[in-house]
Amino acid sequence: MSTIEVPGGTVWFRRVGPTSPGTPGLPLLVVHGGPGLPHYYLSSLERLADERPVVFWDQLGCGNSDRPADRSLWTMERSVAEMDAVIRALGLDAFHIFGNSWGGMLAQQYVLDMPSGAVSLTISNSTASIPRFAEHVTRLKSQLDAATQDAIDRHEAAGTTGAAEYQDAIMTWNETFLCRARPWPDDLYRAFQNMGTEIFETMFGPSDFHIVGTIRDWDVRDRLREIALPTLLLAGRFDECSPDDMREMHETIDGSRFELFEHSAHLPFIEEPQKFDTVMREFLRWHDVG
């Protein structure tokens, strides 16, 4: 098994695709979301491995990685240190970064704080501000039918989120604002089955609608102009991360590119795979020269 020592424990990684020195494309490092939702749901990115190595890792506390019980580990600062340890252990000296959702937040913080050999950054369906994200999900929840809203609010207030009624309501949310593809791919179910719920609860809170965790105040909007890497921002029309906020991020990051997926929520690599692959291949090829 391929593992790397990081602050707090050992993490699992997997490299897919060509390994010869003559490979035309630079490696792509894939940073998963959650926090705590392991890499499985991003397996679609293996499609890009015909042109370049694609590297996945399960962040500490979820998937195939160690699951330490120390809740003090679940901070943005330690997560950045983990990402840096992974990059150094893999010897990535010229590479692309792809971060989805929470992974996009972690990727932003990483490139803002850590020197590296990264040649491009893709921020997929993410945010630069947890307070802005919280405002957006509150607006989206108000668009759900009254019974679904009531089930979410009532069970979260009572602490009965294990109830079938609550789980049904969250599935309605997920099928509307997370992934609109039908049926869901097995890789997405598998990610939820192997999720590190303790990480999510510690960093975010009990749900997206009640963010009280360690990153509740995280906001890098005033630092986005510091991002000097070529940057691609991907947003979904029905995304739980506001596409309007992502467009503002694009307007702030000098020279960045913005792509809106009209038929997607949060996972365009699953919901609109053909357009996603076309956009990604073009962007990565263009910046392979570093």
TrEMBL record:
The UniProt record lists the keyword Hydrolase: yes
Entry EC number(s): 3.4.11.5
Domain AB hydrolase-1: 27-273
GO CC term, one of those recorded: membrane
Active site residues of this protein: 101, 239, 266
Cited InterPro entries: AB_hydrolase_1, AB_hydrolase_fold, AB_hydrolase_sf, Peptidase_S33, Pro_imino_pep
GO MF, one annotated term: aminopeptidase activity
Positions of transmembrane segments: none
Pfam families: Abhydrolase_1 (PF00561)
Catalytic reactions of this protein: Release of N-terminal proline from a peptide
Gene Ontology annotations of biological process type: proteolysis
Keywords: Hydrolase
NCBIfam families: pro_imino_pep_2 (TIGR01250)
Family per similarity comment: Belongs to the peptidase S33 family.
Protein name: Proline iminopeptidase
